[in-house]
Specification:
Length: 167
């Protein structure tokens, strides 16, 4: 009788441990653009670089600032403020860029400041109902009592391909 109870308690404890282990965590980079907070999955960021020049390109859409040189490779610089509906679309003055991890493209986002990294459960991202892969936002993260929009880096690449005719 006692052996059965001990065995049952052991089985219950193992199943509780399994539930705790099943929670998948995602690390998010929280950054700012013009004093507004935004998030991006840290897995989507290859590198954060500072103090590089952006070389303007003629006849580009207004959201493309130009290209930067990262170890001899050109990376397209995007000003997301020009795309996400902000009134002031002036690029940040700070020379700070997120190099986005892509298999087939070289893309960077011009930002103002790195604020912090945080780890959250996958389910903590409040998805935008009806959004698709072309939407600039995946959803929002609830952190410290505020909702922080989470950027979709794939949308920037899709837009560039569409606008430049390589989609």
């Amino acid at each position: 009788m006692n052996e059965d109870i001990v065995e049952q308690l052991g089985t219950e404890k193992e199943s509780e441990e399994d539930i705790v282990e099943e929670k998948k965590m995602t690390t998010w980079l929280i950054f700012s653009m013009a004093k507004k907070k935004y998030a991006i999955r840290s897995a989507d960021v290859l590198e954060i670089i500072r103090d590089v020049s952006v070389y303007k390109l003629p006849f580009m859409p207004s959201y493309i600032e130009g290209v930067l040189n990262r170890r001899g490779d050109p990376f397209t610089v995007i000003n997301p403020r020009a795309l996400i509906g902000e009134a002031d679309t002036t690029p940040p003055e700070e020379p700070l860029f997120l190099i986005i991890k892509r298999d087939d493209d070289q893309l960077s986002i011009h930002i103002s400041d790195i604020l912090f990294f945080t780890e959250m459960e996958e389910g903590d991202l409040n998805l935008i109902p009806g959004s698709n892969e072309e939407g600039f936002f995946l959803g929002t993260l609830s952190y410290g009592g505020e909702e922080i929009p989470a950027l979709n880096p794939n949308a920037f690449e899709l837009l560039i391909r569409k606008d430049l005719g390589s989609a």
